[in-house]
Amino acid sequence: MKRIILFSTPEGKHFDKILDLTFPKELKNKVLAYMPSNGSETKQEYTDLWKSWAKDHDTKFLFIDNSKEDAKEEIKKLLSANILVITGGNTFTLLRNLKRSGLDKAIIDFSKKDNFVINGFSAGALILSPTINICNLPNYDENLVELKDLSGLNLVDYEVFPHYSDELKNVLENYRESTNNIVKEITNDDHILIENE
């Protein structure tokens, strides 16, 4: 089972379904690697929520700090897991941290396992696409880390537009004209499931 779940936010009417997809019963000896977008500077309440969801699903919980430049231990922890959760936050910071630490390559290696779940929401979904260029749109993320290389991990072959609503229709249509990639919108009450047996 190979499964990638892309969504906007870990709440709302669809989230029970996402939790079921994140912790599938057929996946044995579940180990969740939880990777906040900004390393160890995450809010403890979010970490505690994912810890409790892991516990509710009989899953071991590992915290992955992507802000460490020497990330050998973090990479080792990640590759020992079979479920990966990459959170929202500033997409530029997340991608910079991944590239600087080598966790970008480790995530790609993780996706080559026979059995895995990758759960990316908001920034965590964006970095799995071919590029995070969509984050340069007005009122999106600010490139505080001056990241130049906006190429994503390319685990999905299209771009995503998290937090989409009808008010953003013109913004999305204009962006679609500026990219060669397919762009799929994700509302706050929706998700995209990519699955291979």
Quickly name the level 1 CATH class.
Answer: Alpha Beta
Oligomeric description of these chains: single chain
Number of helices: 7
Tally of distinct domains = 1
Give the class from helix and strand content and strand pairing: alpha/beta
Indicate the low-confidence ranges by residue numbers: none
Amount of beta strand:
15-25%
At the fourth CATH level, what is the homologous superfamily?
A: Class I glutamine amidotransferase (GATase) domain
The CATH architecture is: 3-Layer(aba) Sandwich
Order the strands across the largest sheet as they lie in space: 3-2-4-5-1-8
Query: What is the typical, i.e. mean, pLDDT?
Result: 94
Distance between the termini: 5 Å
Q: Characterize the biggest β-sheet.
A: 6 strands, mixed
Order of helices and strands: EHEHEHEHHEHEHEE
Helix percentage range: 25-40%
CATH topology: Rossmann fold
Radius of gyration: 16 Å
Approximate shape: globular
Let me know the number of strands: 8
